[in-house]
Amino acid sequence: MKKPTVLLIFAAIFSLFSCNKAPSVPKISIFCDHIETIARQEGISFAQAATLLKECGYTGADVRVFQRPDEIKSLDSLGFEHACAITEIDYSQEDQSQLEEQTLAFMDSQGYDRLLLVTGLMPSSGFTQEQREAARKRIAAFAARVTAKGYTILVEDYDNRRSFSYNAERIDSLFMASKDLGIVFDTGNFLFAGDDTMAQYEHFRDKIGHVHLKDRVAPDNMACVPAGDGCLPVKEIIKKLMDSGYKGWYTVEQYGSRNMLQDSYTAYANVYSVLTEK
Predict the structure, then answer these.
(1) Deepest in the core among 99, 148, 245, 264, taking most CB within 10 A?
(2) Which secondary-structure segment (H or E) carries 23?
């Protein structure tokens, strides 16, 4: 493992003097995957990477149900709150009972109360309307089980054309099948689907249970940049959420970043400035 770079040392100093740590800091979260990326890019441990982000002001983490236990333990020991758990269950396949049971066991044992269900991808061909409807029924049945245990279950506007929740139309079809589902509103994915982001915010705002703050370079360039630095109306959406009384988490997302540490600092500063604007 390489020694910490000059950039890393600068980042630590930056976190101490440029990031806010007041008790009133809003609930800004980050993906555990991003912490892993920082550790890999900077040649430091996962715990060291998580510490830098905690010092910056991040207070929550979104983790996968099958996250490494030692990573979850590190997050807990540093005081990261449980923003959202993420499970991936492929409902294009019929029997998913094992993954469903493992997901519920994780929720019970780890103390998460909010679950993002990534529903898998439909085959590129040969998947009939009847099969789609059967998959929606399986999703609805699992959502009912999660809700019965007192947890919140959500789907996301997911940026893959084969997803069961790819665009507004498909999300609406899931909501028609299940009264238990809510939405993780991803600020960058409706653009990918060709839907108007602000229009879909208004359409789904009463169903929003969690937020991913993703920004993109341009309508013809889907590469991610720190939230607030791209072409999406991230600031406007945050303000609308605040005005609506939303009290949940804001999770920054920039998969594919080649400088995840600096991008995470930038995203935090951008989001914090909106959330604390007078």
Answers:
(1) 264
(2) none
